[in-house]
């Protein structure tokens, strides 16, 4: 008999165990590093978006009393609306200039070397349009002095957001230090104020000459219209397809083929759906360009695979015992599915749908091809006719604004990203709440 | 169930409505250089007329012309904006698709400028400098050799001793065409390389050692790249430069400072005409189309004191001839 002397003890850690422990520790560190990097990237992205975009939610306004001169607006004094209508916005601009001249003449507001022509440039060109709209709506106000709250021009607005400084104004062709001094004096006199920019959410897009007037109104409406179309088309079609495939379809090579194709479609680059939409919906079916109906249909095609996959997964997750029990007490196959399986799968289906919608909401590429990346200033009318009117979409508006020359549009683009993020966050929160509240586990 | 019914109702309505209703707003697509001008006009048009604001899309000159030539009918566009003249292939495509008469409207000129970071040195170029800086092969002692120049001072002793780095528009841009023609070819000729190369097209070959960078995006991308590379020179449109004078310093060309005046007079050499093309079959069918075209070329908009000139358009000295042409609806003559 030989003595077996133990070479290892459970009390001292041997080499192998130490190596395994170290490996585990190392892996945890890698994990922490990965998370930290991801968080840093997210924080960097958010900081750049929010620091760039939050100023878009504030806007500088200049309040001015403008004399609606009958000699300019109603030359023959006939108060005939048709004749007043003939006066274009070019005819209104001198009235604003005159009102500013009066302010400049006041000793406490005077700025040396500032011409009234340059002072007039401090007010958005949208101002003349707003005045014309007001006069056409209230023709009896001609001859009165009316107080208007005008948008300050992009550069003046930028001065109160730190984008424009006295130094940069000296080199800038579009703004002069005198204008900024005058703006400061107007501010001291209480005529220039910065307040929350509701217009950013409600106004339509504006041209390059007036970034201060650009808003997301049409884009938000367009996105909402498209989401409504996607929801009303993709949800029923997707759920019906999944129920058939999951519960009724025979298992054969054909259904396998369909299944493979659906998974494949989910991974197809979204621009492909845009090409398809252009060919089928616009060129073949003759639907109008730039309309939410075409955008909605294209995004429906894109969202369908996502919804079908999510729905099938949640149908699969319902235990077979539920079906068996229902069939056992004499329910038909359809009753078993619609009375028992579908309600239990509903939270999963809804979650999948909302995630699919969120994905569609942020999609730009397919919209490029169907004319949605356009300058649209008219609000689409109420549905269903509105589905056929031209509209923009939120991600497209971001894309459009980043391409414009005036730096004020960069700020607007970041602001639009924030709005888009808020919408996405809302949708994802709803998805999570639904899942938490209604999901059942077996 | 009702959900499904609504969905199918929408789908049915979709196909029914299109055949029944005509479009009530003008639709425009094309050049991204013309886009800002077209949006300014569209906005003012919507404000001052009883017609809805036209829908203006970008996408590039070539794409816009192709879209216009897709056919006649409310689901095709009415106007193609273009920063270069229409090509015979476009006209042929139009003809095959039944778009027989096109109206060519030249509404002004656009200058192309060379600019660098405002805190850097300023430059005074000649086309020959650019050719010697960027061409694949340049003339040294009467022979063609691979481009040896590293700094601007190597090209021209008067220029700053700064590494050559240029951001030029990519080949899909209309701006690149003008750069090739007005700068590279002129420089090619001036340095005598044209005689040795024999072909104008050969003058367009650029060096591939990373000194010349093609920008396929728009001017905002070029500006962002300049911000990161302070010693680079970028190619911009005149209007873009005028909106960013606080960040950029512009270079002269042949000792001429680019401005709307020098481009209009022809002193500043690097410029091009801007066009839009109107589908004549849509005039009188699409409400507001004739009015929009007339409004675009009116003195109020495209004149030397109008909002377009303020944004950077070089007004066309022959604008009144264009106005007559538009009023009479004269279609364009075959390209010569």
TrEMBL record, chain A:
One of its GO terms (cellular component) is plasma membrane. The keyword S-adenosyl-L-methionine does not apply. PROSITE patterns: ABC_TM1 (PS50928). GO terms for biological process: phosphate ion transmembrane transport. The chain crosses the membrane at residues 27-50, 224-245, 265-287, 293-315, 336-358, 413-434. CDD domains: TM_PBP2 (cd06261). InterPro entries: DUF3333, MetI-like, MetI-like_sf, Phosphate_PstA. SUPFAM superfamilies: MetI-like (SSF161098). It is a multi-pass membrane protein. Keywords: Cell membrane, Membrane, Transmembrane, Transmembrane helix, Transport. It is found in: Cell inner membrane; Cell membrane. GO terms for molecular function: phosphate transmembrane transporter activity. The keyword Transferase does not apply. It holds the Pfam family BPD_transp_1. It comes from the Bacteria. Residues 220-431 form the ABC transmembrane type-1 domain. Belongs to the binding-protein-dependent transport system permease family. CysTW subfamily. This is Phosphate transport system permease protein PstA.
From TrEMBL, chain B:
Keywords: Signal. Gene3D superfamilies: Periplasmic binding protein-like II. PANTHER family: PERIPLASMIC PHOSPHATE BINDING COMPONENT OF PHOSPHATE ABC TRANSPORTER, PHOSPHATE-BINDING PROTEIN PSTS. The keyword Chaperone does not apply. The lineage of its organism: Bacteria, Pseudomonadati, Pseudomonadota, Alphaproteobacteria, Rhodobacterales. The keyword Signal applies. This is Phosphate ABC transporter substrate-binding protein, PhoT family. Residues 1-22 form the signal peptide. It comes from Shimia haliotis. Pfam families: PBP_like_2. Residues 17-300 form the PBP domain.
């Amino acid at each position: 008999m030989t003595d077996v002397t133990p070479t290892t003890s459970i009390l001292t850690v041997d080499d192998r165990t130490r190596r395994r422990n170290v490996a585990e520790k190392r892996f945890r560190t890698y994990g922490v590093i990965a998370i930290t990097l991801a968080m840093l990237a997210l924080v960097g992205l958010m900081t750049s978006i929010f620091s760039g975009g939050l100023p878009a939610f504030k806007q500088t306004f200049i309040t001015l009393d403008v004399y609606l001169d009958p000699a300019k607006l109603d030359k023959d004094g006939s108060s005939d609306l048709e004749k007043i209508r003939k006066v274009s916005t070019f005819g209104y601009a001198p009235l604003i200039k005159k009102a500013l001249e009066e302010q400049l003449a006041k000793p406490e507001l005077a700025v040396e070397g500032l011409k009234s022509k340059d002072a007039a440039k401090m007010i958005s060109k949208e101002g003349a349009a707003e005045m014309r709209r007001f006069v056409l709506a209230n023709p009896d106000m001609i001859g009165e002095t009316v107080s208007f709250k005008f948008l300050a021009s992009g550069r003046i607005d930028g001065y109160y957001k730190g984008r424009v400084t006295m130094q940069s104004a000296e080199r800038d062709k579009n703004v002069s230090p005198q204008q900024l001094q005058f703006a400061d004096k107007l501010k001291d006199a209480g005529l220039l104020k910065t307040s929350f920019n509701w217009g950013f959410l409600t106004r339509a897009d504006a041209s390059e000459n007036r970034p201060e007037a650009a808003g997301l109104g049409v884009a938000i409406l367009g996105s909402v219209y498209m989401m409504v179309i996607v929801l009303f088309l993709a949800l029923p079609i997707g759920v019906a397809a999944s129920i058939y495939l999951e519960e009724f379809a025979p298992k054969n090579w054909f259904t396998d083929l369909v299944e493979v194709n659906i998974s494949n479609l989910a991974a197809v680059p979204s621009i492909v759906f845009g090409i398809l939409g252009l060919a089928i919906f616009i060129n073949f079916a003759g639907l109008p360009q730039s309309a939410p109906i075409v955008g909605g249909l294209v995004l429906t095609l894109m969202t369908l695979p996502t919804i079908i996959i999510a729905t099938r997964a949640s149908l699969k997750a319902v235990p077979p015992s539920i079906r068996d029990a229902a069939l056992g007490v004499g329910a038909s196959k359809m009753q078993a599915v619609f009375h028992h399986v579908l309600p239990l799968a509903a939270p999963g289906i809804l979650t999948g749908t909302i995630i699919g919608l969120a994905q569609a909401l942020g999609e730009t590429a397919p919209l490029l091809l169907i004319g949605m990346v356009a300058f649209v200033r008219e609000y689409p009318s109420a549905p269903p006719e509105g589905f056929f009117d031209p509209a923009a979409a939120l991600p497209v508006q971001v894309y459009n604004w980043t391409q414009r020359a005036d730096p004020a549009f960069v700020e607007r683009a970041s602001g639009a990203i924030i709005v888009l993020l808020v919408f996405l966050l809302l949708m994802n929160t709803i998805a999570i709440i639904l899942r938490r509240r209604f999901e059942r586990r077996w | 169930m009702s959900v499904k019914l609504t969905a199918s109702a929408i789908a049915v309505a979709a196909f029914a409505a299109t055949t029944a209703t005509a479009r009530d707003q003008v639709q425009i697509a094309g050049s991204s250089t013309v886009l800002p001008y077209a949006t300014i006009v569209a906005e003012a048009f919507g404000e001052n007329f009883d017609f809805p604001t036209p829908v203006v899309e970008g996408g590039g000159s070539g794409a816009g012309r192709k879209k216009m030539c897709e056919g006649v009918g409310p689901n095709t566009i009415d106007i193609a904006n273009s920063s270069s003249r229409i090509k015979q292939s476009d006209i042929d495509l139009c003809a095959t698709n039944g778009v027989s008469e096109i109206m060519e409207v030249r509404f002004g000129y656009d200058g192309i400028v060379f600019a660098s970071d405002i805190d850097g040195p300023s430059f005074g170029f000649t086309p020959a400098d650019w050719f010697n800086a960027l061409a694949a092969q340049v003339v040294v002692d009467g022979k063609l050799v691979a481009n040896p120049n590293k700094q601007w001072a190597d090209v021209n002793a008067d220029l700053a001793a700064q590494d050559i780095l240029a951001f030029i528009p990519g080949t899909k841009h209309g701006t690149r065409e003008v750069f090739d023609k007005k700068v590279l070819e002129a420089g090619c000729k001036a340095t005598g390389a044209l005689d040795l190369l024999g072909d104008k097209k050969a003058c367009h070959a650029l060096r591939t050692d990373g000194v010349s960078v093609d920008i396929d995006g728009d001017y905002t991308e070029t500006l962002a790249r300049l911000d990161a590379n302070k010693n680079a020179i970028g190619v911009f449109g005149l209007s873009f430069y005028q909106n960013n004078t606080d960040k950029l310093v512009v270079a002269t060309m042949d000792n001429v400072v680019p401005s709307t005046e020098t481009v209009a007079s022809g002193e500043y050499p690097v410029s091009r005409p801007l066009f839009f093309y109107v589908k004549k079959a849509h005039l009188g069918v699409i409400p507001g189309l004739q009015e929009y075209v007339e409004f675009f070329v009116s003195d109020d908009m495209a004149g030397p004191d109008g909002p377009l000139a303020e944004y950077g358009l070089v007004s066309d000295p022959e604008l009144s001839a264009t106005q007559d042409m538009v009023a009479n609806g004269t279609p364009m003559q075959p390209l010569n």
